[in-house]
Design goal:
About 40% of the residues lie in helices and about 15% in strands. A six-stranded mixed sheet has the order 8-9-10-11-13-12. A five-stranded parallel sheet has the order 2-3-4-1-5, sandwiched between helices. It starts with 7 loop residues before the first helix and ends in a 9-residue tail after the last strand.
Length: about 400
């Protein structure tokens, strides 16, 4: 079963306005399937195949003769020197768009090459697993489960594509984790003890929604802070985690400076935490943190796929007052608190009230409490409790 992706129309628009499209994201989120289905007239070539990567690296002219544009080059990071030839080809075909579509799962290696060779020539689009809207749009008779099952299972398309032959979630993530460690981690960083790295990944999952403290995390795993920083960079480069930075303007000295840690897939985070059912997760102490992770993930997808200019931040002052998510749009900030309760109370608004007092009513737009509910309702004149399962209209 094909699951229609929200980003499809945007990709079609990009290839009409840019010579190069770069789609980057973790393994198994559906990049290849999306590109082959959306661009059936393009030749598809995987550089994960050693002979293809070698030809592109050592005989680029021959490679371009074999696979002239328009062409999709998958796992392009395995041929880093080929980017110079893409640049040369694009520059010699000025005015032509949609020549190359590049994709890859190792963001650091890919983006370094893009920045060096294709600046101003390429549109870069981050891509992740299913959004809440995409899962919602799968016909009910073609999927199983409730919303909390989606949070627990996560958005990797393979876990939802065929209701009659769904893989075991535990076996799938077990295989994904071992493959990720063996392939991406070994390629990105020479880690001597892969067991310690897996323990580090699990320790990070246990800290979803918390302020990043690499010294503490490294100490718990038994590695140095320097090593923890390197390993965190690997998780970021392979698109497994997302760091939400704190918001501050000129008054920033009074605010938190460390980012908050989130996984780009709540199903993987729940697996790493050891949960084996949606119900055990939903009734656990970690449920609130994973709900916050889920809501932030929806807006991360919205920004990357629909509105790239949207700012994503969190806010906390020295007194401990906090707002989980700030959406910055048109020089205003839209506060979002993430509460797993279906009946948020007035005390949930303390951080929102403090934020308004700190920055002023004219700068802070209507606020939202993102809850696991179906229909929204107003808590007061400036705050609405709303379903956080999907994004919503934030036009002010």
């Amino acid at each position: 079963m094909w699951i229609k992706r929200e980003i499809t129309d945007e990709l079609l628009s990009i290839v009409n306005t840019f010579p190069v499209l770069v789609l980057t994201g973790p393994r198994q989120v559906g990049k290849t399937s999306l590109l082959e289905r959306t661009f059936p007239d393009y030749t598809y070539v995987s550089l994960d195949v050693g002979t293809n990567a070698e030809t592109a690296e050592t005989r680029p002219d021959d490679f371009l003769k074999l696979y002239p544009p328009p062409v999709i080059l998958d796992e392009i990071q395995y041929a880093p020197s080929f980017f110079r030839y893409i640049k040369t080809y694009v520059d010699s075909h000025k005015g032509e768009n949609g020549l190359f579509i590049l994709s890859g799962s190792q963001n650091f290696m890919l983006m370094e090459s893009v920045a060096d060779s294709l600046a101003g020539r390429a549109a870069v689009v981050p891509f992740l697993g299913l959004s809440g809207n995409e899962w919602k749009n799968i016909a009910q008779d073609q999927r199983s489960g409730e919303w909390k099952d989606f949070l627990f299972t996560g958005g990797f398309p393979a876990l939802w594509a065929d209701i009659n032959a769904l893989p075991s979630r535990e076996r799938w993530f077990q295989g994904y984790l071992s493959t990720y460690i063996e392939r991406d981690v070994r390629n990105l960083l020479n880690i001597g003890n892969l067991r310690d790295f897996e323990r580090f990944v699990r320790a990070c999952a246990a800290r979803c929604g918390q302020t990043l403290n690499l010294s503490e995390t490294g100490r718990d795993v038994g590695i140095s802070t320097t090593t923890a920083k390197k390993w965190m960079s690997v998780l970021q480069a392979s698109n497994q985690v997302f760091l939400l930075e704190p918001y501050f303007r000129s008054l920033g000295k009074r605010l938190a400076k460390s980012p908050k840690l989130y996984f780009t897939d709540t199903g993987l985070a729940a697996f790493l935490m050891g949960f084996s059912s949606a119900e055990s997760l939903w009734t656990s102490m970690q449920a609130g943190a994973l709900w916050e992770n889920y809501v932030v993930n929806q807006w991360l997808r919205y920004r990357d796929w629909i509105e790239p200019s949207l700012g994503l931040w969190y806010w906390r002052d020295q007194g401990g007052n906090e707002v989980d998510l700030l959406l910055e749009k048109n020089q205003k900030i839209i506060p979002v608190e993430c509460k797993i309760t279906q009946k948020p109370e007035k005390k949930s608004l303390r951080g929102l009230h403090r934020l308004r007092k700190f920055y002023g009513e004219e700068f802070v737009a209507h606020a939202y409490i993102a809850c696991p509910i179906e229909s929204g309702f107003d808590l007061d004149q400036s705050t609405t409790a709303i379903s956080g399962w999907t994004t919503w209209d934030i036009h002010q």
